Amino acid sequence: MKKKFWSNFFMGILAMGFIAGCSSDEWEEGGNTPNPDLEDAVYMNVQVQLPVAGAGTRSNTKPEGGSSDGTEVGKPDENKVKRVLLVMANKDNNKIVCYGANNIEDGKSESSIIGSIHKINKTVLAKYYEDNGTNGTLSERTVKVYVFCNPTTTLEKIVADDVDGTWINATAEIHETYNEQNQSDITGADGAAIWGGSDHKNGFLMSNAGATEKDIPGNIKDWDVYQSADKAFNLSGPNNANTENEINNSGSIKVERSVARFDFRDGSPVGNFTYTLIEETEVEGGKKPIIQIQLKRMGLVNMSKHFYYLRRVSNDGKNDGSFVGGTETNENYVVDTDADEKSAANLDNFQFGDYFNFCLGSGVGKDWTINADARNGWYNSLMSDVVKGDEDDWENPEKNKYHIWRYVTENTIPAAGDGQIYQKNGVSTGIVFKGKIVVPENTTSEKHQTLIDAIKNATGDSDKDPILYAYGSNLFVSWTEVRAYAIANKEADKVFYETVFGTNFTKTPVAAQEAKGDTPAVEAVYSDDTNSPDYAWNAWHNTKETNPETVKSLLLAFKKKATGALFTLYQSSIDGEDAGYYCYYYYWNRHNDNQDLSVMGPMEFAVVRNNVYKLAVTNIKQLGHPRIPENDPDPKDPDDPDESSDIYITLSVEVLPWTVRVNNIEF
């Protein structure tokens, strides 16, 4: 049956005049066992070199390529090779032939070098020799060789069906959504196969780490000696040594994983993802923490839906002039499939959902906002769950162990053009940290007791719990406390006084006081400056209106005045069963670090394949962004540049190829 099957197959090729081919039949036949009934077959041997480990210290791309942080060998399943797809192409990347083999048992190998033997149809080769030479002799015997380890079914079909050379520009596609059951739903042409399936056990998609050229025999008759598996033509070593037909293809073909990885460790000074914001000097001279931030969750935003199967680079990140398989240096760019779209001067009409999984915001243009709908679409994990994950293989005794969080797709942004900045929040892959304002157990403070009580007693009902107001380094409980502080410090801080009450009032503001003993109560006097937040607060809080819509409108008017005066408002909510005051910290993944906040360097903010980005939040300097958009004086905008002087967190980043990049974040 097998003899008849293969005979019919080759007769079909000859009858249809195929010049190049790659079929599922060839895959099924495999590459280790010769078919004695098939005379029209020759064999090739190729060696694939997996990414290997090295050493380094800091996150920058070196001039010659690679990361200054060194490399990491990776987990066994990340290095597994179960199948190899090999494509030979001419100088214009038109396919000559492609063929595959299932010759690595269970994907296991004792070294970083994987050998693979492939069987191809000699008739296909003969056609190539006829079209590109004279009397069976090639005019140019150098060919381009492309290797795909663990190719997806979609990729196999793209290469096999190609007849016009467009396969070289093929893109992978993955759609991932996150649901309330803390599970991801992954679809798209390639799906989770790009990172070895949902359990990461079936081998990661890998491809050439650089452009590879090899020599093949000059005459079609020279292939006659390669008609058995044990005498396969070697694409990675010498052939016919010391003869006139000697061909020395030195060197294995280096491959790289097509996806990146994010690792994380707890970098907090006191542990348990906790950072002190407010502390007091004790009688003994020491300091005690009063108000802290405890990070509870981390979420992935803006993960690309598409990437090229084969890496390419260019001087500006655009496709024009790009080089397939080129090496990334500290002066060029890795090209993104959506480079043109991400080069928009502004993102007012950008359809974020067409390009990204886990979009940072909801809506398009002026309707774009980060709200509950957007946050529900982020991929999110409990911090406690992340550090329960697998530890990495990076041997650095001076660092705490990182834990593998998840795998991500490549996302790069082209160079600035016409004075524009393209590395923006709306199109950059980022990590959002959700923190809760907490108070250490048994903490008391005469100065901050009302704040401590408000945080401890929060119910999660934002209509009943007090609103917290942050201004500069101060955190107030209720607007009553804000105005009382402004009045008490009128002379010392005139700017704050005018921020609260304005400058065009006719009645001097007065703070309300309760009666104490013989001292009568004092009634509050509010600012009558209609442009002040104090006026708007009085109009809302002390309104006689009963219509809910009118009350809501007055509240929004107050919030607009307060945030316009640079107050940040925090209202309580519930995360699971945990009530409290929460805030968000945004971090845009840093691929290169030029150590200059005033200049956006090449590929500074990006995700690049085969890199591990090691993240650790080492310090938090201030409260983060509130969860309610109208409570934020500086809400995130898709056009915001990734680099800003407003630093909320410090995050360490180390990057190795399984290049690793580590990010220390400081908010």
Automatic annotation (TrEMBL):
Q: Which domain of life is it from?
A: Bacteria
Q: Which GO terms describe its cellular component?
A: pilus shaft
Return any one Pfam family short name.
Answer: Fimbrillin_C
Span list, region Disordered: 53-76, 624-643
The residues covered by the Minor fimbrium subunit Mfa1 C-terminal domain are 583-664
Q: Where is the composition biased (Basic and acidic residues)?
A: 627-638
Per the UniProt entry, the signal peptide is: 1-20
- Keywords, sorted A to Z: Signal
InterPro entries per UniProt: Mfa1_C, Mfa1_fim
NCBIfam families, alphabetically? fim_Mfa1_fam
Descriptive protein name:
Minor fimbrium subunit Mfa1 C-terminal domain-containing protein
